[in-house]
Amino acid sequence: MRNARSVDHENQDKATLSDRVYDKMANAIIQGEFAPGARLIETELARRFKVSRGPLREAMRRLDEHRLIVRTARQGARITDLSAEVLQEIATVRELLESAACRFAALNMTDQEIAELQAIVDADSELVATGQTYYRQEHRLDLHFCIVRGARNSIIESILGKQLYPLIRMYRYQHRMVEGRAENALKEHKAIVDAISHRDGELAELLMTRHLANSRKLLLQAISAHPGDRSGYLTHDNQDISQSGTDEVKV
């Protein structure tokens, strides 16, 4: 009979494996490797990721919880197909929370953390100057997440970091960047960081509200102009995720 320690160790191993599967699947979905509405087949996914059904189902439960996939009783699990209406809902909540976080960050961030914000803006400026995109996935290098973290509010950080930002990245991969937006967004970022560095919470909040409103407007315009555009995705709308052939994603 197994003792309690061996059972605990086994449960920890399953949790770790489930976390790895979740991370790999989430990144693949967010980065557009699978088309909206693509069907998920558990047996194929278990074979692909070389895991048992237990850790896989736990990973899929979390994907469903974070709205990256949709599970129904009759149709099984599919990749989320985000609409303009859902974007409106996401953007509304984001603007409220992130603008408030910006005000808190101006009061709570250390001088070193503010210097790190400036370093991110400087690095982004170099990328934009060479015609490259500066949007990053890594939380530690993303200006918005660093500001949210600097607000010192764990609830806001959790909602934005775990619930909303992954969905926002899905929209960005799905729809092309509006020409000239990178330059304008960078200017807005610089103004926000400047307000934070001067500890002007009210101005920082106002500038972030305007910045996010501009982003929302342009993304909605892109969706409206190309409602059926799936150019950011590597697979076809009707195919199964198990047949996508995107073998770069490994555990």
TrEMBL record:
Transmembrane recorded as keyword: no
GO molecular function: DNA binding; DNA-binding transcription factor activity
Annotated coiled-coil segments of the chain: none
Location of the HTH gntR-type domain: 15-82
Polar residues: bias regions: 240-251
Source organism, top-level taxon: Bacteria
SUPFAM superfamilies, alphabetized: GntR ligand-binding domain-like, Winged helix' DNA-binding domain
PANTHER family: TRANSCRIPTIONAL REGULATOR, GNTR FAMILY, TRANSCRIPTIONAL REGULATORY PROTEIN
Keyword annotations of the record: DNA-binding, Transcription, Transcription regulation
PROSITE patterns linked to this entry: HTH_GNTR (PS50949)
Protein name in UniProt: GntR family transcriptional regulator
One Pfam entry name: GntR
Keyword Transcription appears in the UniProt entry: yes
InterPro entries for this protein: GntR_C (IPR011711), TF_FadR/GntR_C (IPR008920), Tscrpt_reg_HTH_GntR (IPR000524), WH-like_DNA-bd_sf (IPR036388), WH_DNA-bd_sf (IPR036390)
Species of provenance: Orrella marina
Residues covered by region (Disordered): 230-251
